[in-house]
Design goal:
The chain contains 13 helices and 16 strands. It is an alpha/beta fold and 359 residues long. It has 2 domains: 95 residues, Rossmann fold (3-Layer(aba) Sandwich), CATH 3.40.50; 238 residues, Rossmann fold.
């Protein structure tokens, strides 16, 4: 049976717990989880501490660090930076230690698109084997957020829009034209792109170079007779590296050797090159397992793409993130749309209520 990334993570956590070892290390355990699952995990960690176990907890989510730890060790670029007593520090001091400077209020500092235009993507009554009667619209230049608990159907909706999963009924309209995709290639050709939930398994070819990954969807446009134009491939990739500030000495570097944030930037570079006309960009958990500074960069990248007229769909399990980045938030509950709310009216309480309450 196929389990979602979140449920796979819960299985891994329980495997670690049942081994009954003296030391248990959790490395980004909550990345694919929502608040309900995180609460279960934290209760488990408290139980382990009461039993005298040593718990090592690695996370980029500062709220979690302050909730479950007694001491904090900060590492940067593979080197020890400092050790802090959790009860004697705060988020701003910790961020400054992590990035080398105070990044201020990340969300308040975002430069947003204020020219949201006409409807670009309209989904009506979309039904698949996983979701039912889903309807929403995305405007040109808008960042549309999707929130919901694990298993609510956020990712499954986007898989159908991207042509991965079969549509049983419903209608998808792109730029005023009814479309039907039998494969992701069909969606890509029409201008829809996806940065998937699991970038390592579904988004990247890890043992290929940055250049190979960036050029992958446009190889036909980079041919010179029967062969690839190597200079054109390199030039296209160099532009992506510069645009997204990908940290690498060369475009030939293997993607598996990059940090999580730089891997995510490679995918963004792939879908926003000059050779591909992306109209709708779906970002599914784009900041999972990424450091604080790069998260802020990705938030701004989403806003910048919206300024270019791209419709951006932003899916996140972090309520604070989706509420503060998106212009409008669509809330999923049990495979259906439970409601939507504008950013200025959104709170964690009203979004959670829609995500959790039946009917």
């Amino acid at each position: 049976m196929f389990l979602s990334i979140a449920y796979q993570q819960m299985v891994e956590i329980m495997k670690a717990y049942r081994r009954d070892t003296a030391v248990i290390a959790f490395d980004e355990p909550t990345a694919p989880l929502t608040d309900t699952e995180i609460t279960i995990l934290f209760d488990l960690i408290r139980q382990l501490k009461e039993e005298g176990k040593i718990v090592i907890y690695v996370s980029h989510r500062l709220k979690e660090i302050f909730e479950v730890t007694d001491e904090i060790v900060v590492l940067k670029d593979g080197k020890f930076v400092t050790r802090l007593v959790t009860s004697q520090t705060n988020e701003q001091e910790l961020i400054a230690a992590m990035v080398g400077r105070d990044i201020g209020d990340t969300y308040a500092n975002l430069s947003r698109n204020d020219k949201i235009r006409d409807v670009l993507l309209e989904v009506n009554g979309l039904t698949t084997s996983a979701v039912s009667d889903v309807s929403f619209s995305l405007r040109r230049g808008e960042v549309l957020g999707f929130a919901g608990l694990v298993g609510s159907g956020r990712t499954e909706v986007m898989r159908a829009v991207f042509g991965v999963d079969a549509v049983i009924s419903g209608e998808i309209n792109l730029d005023g034209e009814k479309v039907s995709f039998s494969s992701p290639r069909d969606a890509i050709d029409k201008g829809i792109a996806l940065c998937p939930e699991d970038r390592k398994e579904q988004g990247l070819v890890l043992y290929r170079s940055i250049e190979d990954n960036v050029c992958m969807p446009v190889l036909a446009k980079l041919r010179k007779w029967l062969f690839l134009n190597s200079k054109a491939c390199e030039a296209l990739t160099v532009k992506a590296v510069k645009k997204y500030d990908i940290k690498t000495p060369t475009v030939d570097k293997l993607v598996i050797e990059l940090s999580g944030g730089n891997q995510q930037k490679v995918i963004l570079g792939r879908w926003t090159s000059e050779l591909i006309d992306t109209k709708v960009l779906i970002l599914d958990e784009p900041t999972k397992g990424i450091d604080v500074r790069t998260k802020a960069e990705i938030y701004q990248m989403a806003c910048n793409l919206a300024k270019e007229g791209i419709g951006v769909i932003f899916i996140s399990s972090e309520l604070t993130e989706v509420i503060n980045v998106a212009d409008t938030i669509v809330v999923m509950n049990n495979g259906r749309v439970a409601g939507s709310v504008k950013r200025e009216d959104a709170t964690e309480e009203n979004v959670l209520a829609m995500a959790m309450l039946e009917g």
